[in-house]
Structures are given as C-alpha cells and as structure tokens.
Specification:
With 103 residues, this protein is mostly beta strands. 0% of the residues lie in helices and 69% in strands.
Length: 103
C-alpha cells in the first residue's frame, strides 16, 4: 500500500491519496485554522493541521506501519520524515513537498 502527500507552496491545500484510490483534501480559507482527520478503509488515517495559514503538519499512517510527516513553516522550508518498516528517512525540500511511503 502506498500513500502520497502533496502540499501546495502556499500551504492552503493538502491532498493525500492512498493506494491511488481514496483522497482527502483539506483547504484553509482566509487564514482560518483547520484540522481534518479521515480514515480510509479502516486502516489508513490522514491528519492535516494548518495554523493561521502559515504552518502545516500532515501525518499519514498506512496500516499502522509506515508514516509520512510533512511540516512546512512560513511557506518556505519543509521537512519530510518517512518511517518505513521502523526505519526513519528524512528529506528536506523548499516549497512543494511530495512524500511517499510504500509497504
């Protein structure tokens, strides 16, 4: 199973797609904070929190084994951490962050 997370450079829209079938989209309007949690097929969960339209943290867990966390601060720098089979991998990017973790 795979989960793909894409965060727009302005952090306003976050889309998570699990196994290319289900998707969860969270949009933040006018800098209002929002938190969205969705459970797909009873095994995968995606949580997106955006604070004041500036910082966002997206966490996706697939089958309770692999997780992908993307944090973006001030819409400039982001740190993506993926844990696959108990091994953590970190990737730093600028603006758009695209992370994937597959079982």
């Amino acid at each position: 199973m795979c989960v793909y997370i894409s965060t727009w450079s302005d952090n306003s829209v976050t889309t998570a797609t699990v196994s290319g079938v289900s998707s969860v989209t969270t949009a933040t309007v006018s800098g209002v904070s929002s938190v969205t949690t969705a459970t797909v097929s009873g095994v995968s969960s995606v949580t997106t929190a955006t604070v004041s339209g500036v910082s966002s943290v997206t966490t996706a867990t697939v089958s309770g084994v692999s997780s992908v966390t993307t944090a973006t601060v001030s819409g400039v720098s982001s740190v993506t951490t993926a844990t696959v089979s108990g091994v953590k991998h970190s990737v730093s990017t600028v603006h758009n962050a695209v992370a994937s973790a597959c079982q």
